[in-house]
TrEMBL record:
SUPFAM superfamilies: Citrate synthase (SSF48256). NCBIfam families: cit_synth_I, PRK05614.1. PROSITE patterns: CITRATE_SYNTHASE. GO terms for biological process: tricarboxylic acid cycle. PANTHER family: CITRATE SYNTHASE. Pathway: Carbohydrate metabolism; tricarboxylic acid cycle; isocitrate from oxaloacetate: step 1/2. This is Citrate synthase. It comes from Rhabdonatronobacter sediminivivens.
Length: 402
């Protein structure tokens, strides 16, 4: 690792690294990925162990504060999050300003950005206590925002948070309860939802997290910084891949059509890519995909959907791709998005909600990374350099002379 800052201080030397494939933008002690081993650690704990033994709010505590909580610390943290799940009542009008057919991600970008207009006190980033309050507010309110974006898009009344439910169950309640019927959250689905949230909680300096850090490096408030991260996450090469992946699996339709799509993915002249495959850092199995695959089987069995064609297509596609020289050579393996859409669809979510669920799960990662950055004495405004390839200096010509 070369500390380029020293070279730069001595003269005008800098790296040209499109896509930052080999440039570290910060030091961080939150998440570690070993791309060759296919290992993901949060504060040192392997993700598969957390997915097996922990739960989302405990992982949130771990990411934010660096250690697993004691029972008392966890209770206190859960109470603080629970007490902040309501949105300012006036924010409803903000939702109502959108077209009904707006994508829920578009609503989330707008509403989260607008939070700085409703929670002024948390925008004072010089005050560590306000930074703490902003973090709790963000984690607590994001499920309400995502659920309301969904309710609004289907023309149903907003459902207020129920604070006697746990985090994931409350989210399902806000999405699926209707005033005319008693809605009881299935604990098995709540557990599956909680696991999806855990698997998406943080992933070091991915595009959206780097966006949050870059936006926040100028001193922008945390709500504005996270709104920028949500916008970045929306892209199909990043968080939008879960929606794109399920749409692709549906388009493939049956296992007989798989070879045609594999052929297209290998064709250099065809822009088609296998969605849910490949990763900038993992050159081995994404450990989250393994857990997600098991969860897909569990959830579908529990819901009595044993004969799911999309899951069959996904498994067969994975099998064929992993035996194909092209994918083996390029080290392209299924990523977290490959199976998540199948589970979310089985739970009753439309594809447009997949990326909002990713966003609400990733909020803790964004806010933990933002807090780490703000508290870092080495922190500077993010300001990449460029290699200029435009015209050399020239004189202005009057319009009639051009
Ligand atoms: N299908 C077919 N070929 C692929 C795929 C894919 N999914 N992914 C990469 N490749 C090929 C590229 O064509 C390229 O080939 P080349 O060397 O012959 O030009 C090579 O593998 C390397 O690909 P890059 O795009 O250079 O790799 P990069 O690290 O920039 O991109 C990315 C990683 C964006 C994830 C890419 O693999 C991709 O587009 N995957 C599909 C979208 C997706 O699933 N995104 C979710 C990522 S995980 C997350 O955000 C939660």
């Amino acid at each position: 690792v070369i500390d380029i800052r020293k070279l730069y201080a001595d003269g005008d030397v800098f790296t040209f690294d499109p896509g930052f494939t080999s440039t570290a933008s910060c030091q961080s002690s939150i998440t570690y990925i070993d791309g060759d081993l296919g290992e993901l650690l949060h504060r040192g704990y392997p993700i598969d162990e957390l997915a097996d033994k922990s739960h989302y709010l405990e992982v949130c505590y771990l990411l934010l504060y660096g250690e697993l909580p004691t029972a008392a610390q966890l209770e206190d943290f859960e109470t603080r999050v629970t007490r902040h799940t309501m949105l300012h009542e006036q924010m409803q009008y903000f939702f109502r300003g959108f077209r009904r057919d707006a994508h829920p991600m578009a609503i989330m970008v707008g509403v989260v950005g607008a939070m700085s207009a409703f929670y002024h006190d948390s925008t004072d980033i010089s005050d560590p206590w306000q930074r703490e309050v902003a973090a709790i507010r963000m984690i607590a309110k994001m499920p309400t925002i995502a659920a309301w974006a969904y309710k609004y898009s289907i023309g149903q009344p907003f459902v207020y948070p129920r604070n006697n439910l746990d985090y994931a169950a409350n989210f399902l309640h806000m999405c699926f309860a209707v005033p005319s019927e008693e809605y009881v959250v299935d604990p098995i689905l709540a557990k599956a939802m909680d696991r999806i949230m855990m698997l998406h909680a943080d992933h070091e300096q991915n595009a959206s997290t780097s966006t949050v850090r870059l936006a926040g490096s100028s001193g922008a408030n945390p709500f504005a910084s996270i709104a920028a991260g949500i916008a970045c996450l929306w892209g199909p090469a990043h968080g939008g891949a879960n929606q794109a992946c399920l749409e692709m699996l549906r388009q493939i339709g049956t296992v007989d059509n798989i070879p045609e799509y594999i052929k297209r993915a290998k064709d250099k002249d065809d822009p088609f890519r296998l969605m849910g495959f490949g990763h900038r850092v993992y050159k081995n199995f994404d450990p989250r995909a393994k857990v997600m695959k098991e969860s897909a089987d569990e959830v579908l069995n529990l819901l009595g959907i044993e004969d799911n064609e999309t899951l069959k297509v996904a498994k067969e596609l994975e099998r064929i791709a992993l035996e194909d020289e092209f994918f083996v050579e390029k080290k392209l393996y299924p990523n977290v998005d490959f199976y998540s859409g199948i589970i979310l669809e089985a739970m009753g979510f439309p594809t447009s909600m997949f990326t909002p669920i990713f966003a609400l799960s990733r909020t803790v990662g964004w806010i933990s990374q933002w807090k780490e950055m703000i508290g870092d004495p080495q922190q500077k405004i993010g300001r990449p350099r460029q290699l200029y390839t435009g015209a050399p200096r020239r004189s202005y010509s009057e319009v009639e002379d051009r």
